[in-house]
Write a structure and sequence with these properties.
295 residues; TIM Barrel; Lyase, Ornithine Decarboxylase, Chain A, domain 1; 2 domains; 6-stranded mixed β-sheet; 7 helices; 24% strand; elongated; binds pyridoxal-5'-phosphate; De-COase2_N; PLP-binding_barrel
Length: 295
């Protein structure tokens, strides 16, 4: 807050801000994408009075204009209850801050986190279910606590773009260890999609050029990076696979490319936009020259 205040002063402006509150709510997603629990690197915790201290400081800081509060519980949240609980905690906090410091909650952001369906066995609430639960809770607490309706913000990321992206890989070597496992090695891996290696994310896949053929064998799709943990999907049923086949992995539109790297000094893949039979290259494949450009 001090740094923001100084920067705003240097620019001779009064900066609107929201304070990110850590409500201490577990959204029951993977630990690495949980952000609203007490023991988190993000936000000012409600517990132990740190959020209150931050509100007080922000309100008394000359070049900052505290417009409201924000929280983001985490990503890939399959339940609506964590939002309801966090809204209750944060609105009660806003009410308390109103009484103590005349704080006006003009804006409230409940962050992102709406889930998408990655695997056939996962059950995902409809966007309307999140919307209903969140707005019902907001409306009833706002009237109960006698607060003015704040400008309301949501920050969905994955739910907007996740299902828009399909990753395509070409099959290289195939290694079968009888009675143990069949590895299908592909020309990408944790450098273009770190999610399976980082937090055990699960996906479905199909052989794109044999999409109508029956799935006949249980295989593991292995990336080409030097880690044994570089497995994109462990145990997936695929149609008979041969070198040169194309493996399609749906729901790669979020948190794949932005989290990609040159791990093992691998070039990043191209991105192609397709719609209605038309396609356009939106990002070209990285070349080895690209990788050497800083040397
Ligand atoms: C503050 C904040 N808001 C929103 C999002 C988007 O989350 P999601 O893609 O789960 O909707 C993120 C993701 O990291 C975030 O950090």
């Amino acid at each position: 807050l001090e740094l923001l205040d100084r920067l705003a002063a240097e620019r001779k402006t009064r900066q609107d801000i929201l304070l990110r509150i850590t409500p201490g709510v577990d959204p029951h997603t993977h630990q690495y994408i949980t952000t609203g629990t007490l023991d988190s690197k993000f936000g000012f915790p409600l517990a132990a009075g740190q959020a209150e201290k931050a509100v007080k400081q922000a309100m008394s800081t000359a070049n900052l204009n505290l417009l409201g509060l924000h929280f983001h519980l985490g990503s890939l949240i399959f339940e609506t209850e964590p939002y309801e609980l966090a809204i209750e905690l944060v609105l009660r906090f806003a009410r308390e801050m109103k009484e103590k410091f005349s704080f006006q909650l003009s804006e409230l952001s409940v962050g992102g986190g709406f889930a998408v369906q990655y695997t056939l066995d996962s059950k995902v609430p409809a966007i309307a279910d999140y919307a209903q639960a969140i707005t019902d809770q907001l409306n009833s607490l706002i009237s109960l606590l006698e607060l003015a309706h704040p400008r309301f913000i949501i920050e969905p990321g994955r739910a907007i773009v996740g299902q828009a992206g399909v990753a395509l890989y070409t099959v290289g070597a195939i290694k079968e260890i009888p009675g143990v496992r069949k590895y299908i090695c592909i020309d990408g891996g944790m450098s273009d999609n770190i999610r399976p290696a980082l937090y055990g994310a699960r996906y479905e896949a199909l052989v794109a050029n044999k999409a109508l053929q029956a799935e006949e064998s249980l295989v593991t799709i292995a990336g080409k990076l030097c880690e044994s943990g570089d497995l994109l999907i462990t145990d997936v049923n695929l149609a008979p696979v041969c070198p040169g086949d194309i493996i399609a992995m749906p729901v790669c539109g979020a948190y794949s490319v932005p989290m990609s790297s040159n791990y093992n000094v691998l070039p990043r893949p191209a991105i192609v936009l397709t719609d209605n039979g038309k396609s356009r290259l939106t990002r070209r494949r990285e070349s080895y020259q690209d990788l050497m450009r800083l040397d």
